[in-house]
Each structure stands twice: as structure tokens, then as C-alpha cells.
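call fold(seq) -> C-alpha cells
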Amino acid sequence: MAEQAQYEELARQLSAVGAVKRDIGRILPPDCPAGSAAVLTLLGRHGDMRMSRLGELLAVDMSVTSRHVAHVAARGWIERSPDPADKRSRILRLTPAGLEQLDELSRRTTRLLADRLSDWTDDEVGQLIRLMTRLRASFGDCRSAPVRHASVAAPVFEETTRTPAST
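ret:
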């Protein structure tokens, strides 16, 4: 088991991850803030879903989820269709324009990470991915088994949107 000082340093390092998230947020297109990017990313990773499921994955309340959904729908990136099982509910689905936007988000994120981590080895990047995946699993991340659209490479930031303050 790690020593107290190691956990304290880990807490400091995790709080500093906010700077990384802010850097990623700066590269987003002006019409696609972090909350909208998270909606697109989750639909790309998990496929069509009800708004209630999206809210669970975003870990925000329904009013915040509704605001994000309205934003992406207004831009034509998703469509909302009646749920055949419950006409009161809507199924959210990426449109071709939404897939294009998601691809653009992925390109921007990949470029930023490639630039910032250019002095890292492939093994170091792989180790970071494995350790971050394990860390999320230790905290019970409900999004650990995505169903991806074959043509979509999701940006790295997709699973970091956890609070209304960061969306």
C-alpha cells in the first residue's frame, strides 16, 4: 500500500489535471463548448440513447443535460426521435453533421496531445492510458464498456465531463 505522502502527492497531481482539461477546452470550436463535445462523444461511443441515460453518463442533472442536448440539436448534430417503447421519451442519435463534428473534435484533441506529449515514448503514453483506465475503474466509472461507431475516433476528453461546472 502506498504511503500517506504518495496519496497527498497524487491528490495534488490530480487537481492539476484541470489545467490539461482547460487546454483541451481551448482548442474546441467556438460553437462547440465542452458540454456539447461531451454529448457528441458519448453518443459516438455508446450509440443512440435516451436523454436520461445521457444524463447518467454526463453525471449531471436533467436540466443541464437538456441544455446541452438543445445546443447540439440546434446545430443539427443530433436528432431527437420518439422512443418506440415510450412515446414520451426521445432517442438521441448523431446525424452525419454530428459525426463530422465529432471527427473534428477528435482531430483537434489528437493534434494537441501529440504536440504536448511529443517527448513521451509510445510505452509511456500506453502506460498513462492503462493507469488512467485503472484509476477510473477504481472509482466505479459507469462508462467503462463503450459501443463505438466504427468510423469514429473519440477524443480523449470524452470521459472527463463530470460536473455542471466543467460543462
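The two ends are 35 Å apart (CA to CA).
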